Amino acid sequence: MTTTSLTSTDIPRLPAGRTLRLGLSRIRYELRTYFRQGDSVFFTFLFPLVMLTIFSVAFSEQNFGPDDAPLSAAAFYLPGMLAAGLLLSGLQNMAIDIAGEKGDGTLKRFAGTPLPVLSYFIGKIGQVFVTGLMQAALLLLVARVVFQVDLPTEQGAWLTFAWVFVLGVSTSAILGIALSGLPRSGKSATAVIIPIALVLQFISGVYLGFSQLPTWLQNVASVFPLKWMAQGMRSVFLPSGYESLEPGGSWNLAGVAIVTTIWLVVGLIVTRMTFRWIRKDS
Q: How many Cα neighbours within 13 Å face the side chain of 149?
């Protein structure tokens, strides 16, 4: 069977306005499909909230951070869970979903329709943005109302949150598309993708304090975007005194932007080179 690749000659030519309208309609479809899948909702949408609740309750009697600026468990884990939510909503959800659509023939059927690949991607990435925003809002609401976490009041902090969120969710979504070709079948997608996401969370300062990790493991984690996304979130939600606990004693927001953007570009290149409507072995 001839492999259909992402080339200009294979993509139907449609007016830009119609392509955008089709993409927006795909967002609505993707959202309805997403929230009908209980396992996806739990392991990508609600999982960070479940983990925040577990850690907040389990360590409710313990203070985190320096003795002169202690934090509750909920306040300490909130930034990491926000960053993990971006990874789960983007990379994990996108990779498993697209791999499943390749495996069950959905993308093969799309190849025989006039649906532009750009509209397909608008639908997928739009769904990630909406669910990621809803997830972040839910985490912040529960942290504030249930666990009495003090949220930032400075406009600058929320502006930092906004660009870290947008850059983080964009990078995670694009990397998810790139990784969707890694599983050999849709059935194996969960077994391949979830361990990758789980390991990244453990070494990137989500479940463990990043400064508590061995130096060599910190160096390994610094190669990947989740460590920087979590660091960007900590700069927003942790007191300034915690900056000294970061590598180099700084939040290093420039590093957050640079490394995450590099991974965004890498994901775009890999997606452009490898994305197929039909698997090579079909």
A: 26
pLDDT tens per residue across span 155-210: 999 999 999 999 999 999 999 999 998 888 878 888 999 999 999 999 998 998 88
Entry pTM: 0.87
Q: Where are the domains of the chain?
A: 16-274
Distance CA 156, CA 147 (A): 24
User: What are the φ and ψ backbone dihedral angles of 69, each rounded to 5 degrees?
Assistant: -145, 65
- Residue 252's region, left for phi above 0, alpha for psi from -120 to 50, else beta, is left
Q: What is the H or E stretch that residue 19 is in?
A: helix 16-35
Query: What is the number of other CB atoms lying within 10 angstroms of the CB of residue 82?
Result: 29
Q: How far apart are CA 140 and CA 45, in angstroms?
A: 14
